[in-house]
Amino acid sequence: MKKIITICAAILMSATIFAQAPQKMSYQAVIRNSSNALIISTPVGMQISILQGSSSGTVVYAETQTPSTNANGLVSLEIGNGTPVTGTFAGINWANGPYFIKTQTDPAGGANYSITGTSQLLSVPYALQATKSSGITANTELVLTNTQANSNLYITPPGNGSTGGIGTSSNHGLYFFTNNVDRAVFTPNGKFGFGTLNPTSTLHLAAANSEIRIENTADSSSLYLTAPGANSTGGIGTPSNHGLYFFTNNVDRAVFTPNGKFGFGTLNPGSTLTVGGGDINVMDIGSGIIMKSPNGNCWRVTVNNSGTLISTSITCP
Q1: Which of 11-15, 56-60, 180-184 has the lowest mean pLDDT?
Q2: Rounded Cα distance, 62 and 103, in Å
Q3: Is the same domain home to 257 and 292?
Q4: What is the pLDDT of residues 193-229, one digit of tens each?
Q5: Planar angle of CA 34, 39, 43, nearest 5 degrees
Q6: Domain range holding 290?
Q7: pTM
Q8: Spatial separation of the C-alpha atoms in residues 255 and 86, rounded to whole Å
Q9: How far apart are CA 11 and CA 233, in angstroms?
Q10: 80 Cβ contact list (under 8 Å, min separation 6)
């Protein structure tokens, strides 16, 4: 018997609030003859049927087409764009699956179908299912249902008591992907992972030598939060000629200047460490200020009960 090798039955559709979803599905298959040789650059006759329930279920829609294979034996067509035989493509209720695609092929281009193949539609045609709803009206949302996993994805417009957004109502994470690779996730318990799909904190960023950059485009300046690693000491800072300020209650309290001086209580430090507008309180009587003399010896300066400064030679830390 001749045979057909199905590559994919892909749903290439999109649904928007303001446009109706296209009533088509893209389908591709490789056609081989009984000797397993590719049938290339040849018109072939095909009948495509959508079966409900099982691979031998009820035919809810069927159509015929006469596409041509390419140099690799690949045939590409759009289901819903052929000559209807049974039912209408728009009349399929995709929520009542599962559904299967049955293809019958005549390599000679006629209707003497000798090649048969059936495969299950494992993905719900979401955009087509959306057209079965009552439409987008006030206080409604778009719901995409995965009937196999019993899960929903909601797209909700804001207003009238709703914050608006996209998310899940079940115990499933909300994933974000590009190039068919998951990049980020909101877990069911509200943690967000970027670069990891298993976040262990409320916000978890993971990547080799990763950093978070916050840029002020008006001033051409950036603030970096860098994780420590092989090529980074880790920390928070600026790469440009801007100070790093620390503030509370929207008031600047301290600063690292671009030349490395630190001011606490002053934003204009004149020395490596400058404290302004307050005292330095050393609570431990055995502790003090350690200074290194010109000859390289270290001394700890403390105070006795009479307020006299005492210097004690110590090993330099």
Answers
A1: 11-15
A2: 10
A3: no
A4: 998 999 999 989 887 777 788 888 888 888 888 877 7
A5: 125
A6: 284-317
A7: 0.44
A8: 76
A9: 48
A10: 22, 23, 24, 25, 63, 89, 90
